[in-house]
Amino acid sequence: METFVKVLIGIIAFIHIAFLVVQIFLWNTEFVQKRIVGDFTPEQISAILAQNQGLYNGFIAAGLIFGLFISQFSQVSPSWITIFFLVCVAIAGIFGSITLKRPTAFLIQSVPAILALVILGLQKG
């Protein structure tokens, strides 16, 4: 059973890597536009994508909150879960600033996450 679950998790990870490739690199191709965008208006697809992005931001927040609580009950402080999600937030802010061509995402997302990572690193060291 353990092997089956690992294979299943690998498949799920692969599917999400495919989503990443489609959404970041292939979104404007005719193939993707026909199959995903279809008959949606630009406003409809924008709203759908914003909702999807909001959900993923909720997952990041949930991961950070989970990391805060799990570190209270674990011998490991800070929790590797918290560090993982802080790195994700920092990368997302950098990527957002590059794609939006505005420093706002970096300032709002990356700077606090990097600051928290530095403080955690200083506490650990």
Description of the structure:
There is one protein chain. By secondary structure, the protein is mainly α. The protein has 5 helices and no strands. Helix 3 packs antiparallel against helix 4 and helix 4 (80-100) runs antiparallel to helix 5 (104-124). The radius of gyration is 18 Å and the shape is globular. The mean pLDDT is 91.
Main sheet attributes: strand count, strand direction, barrel closure: none
Strand content: under 5%
Residue stretches low in confidence (pLDDT < 50, at least 5 long) are none
Helix fraction bin: over 70%
Find the structural class using helix and strand composition.
mainly alpha
Helix and strand pattern: HHHHH
> Shape, please?
globular
Query: Alpha-carbon distance between the termini?
Result: 40 Å
The strand count comes to 0
| Structure annotation, total helices | 5
Task: Give the integer mean of the pLDDT values.
Answer: 91
Q: What would you report as the Rg, rounded to the nearest angstrom?
A: 18 Å
Give the SSE layout.
Layout: H1 2-26, H2 30-37, H3 42-72, H4 80-100, H5 104-124
Helix pairs in contact: 3-4, 4-5
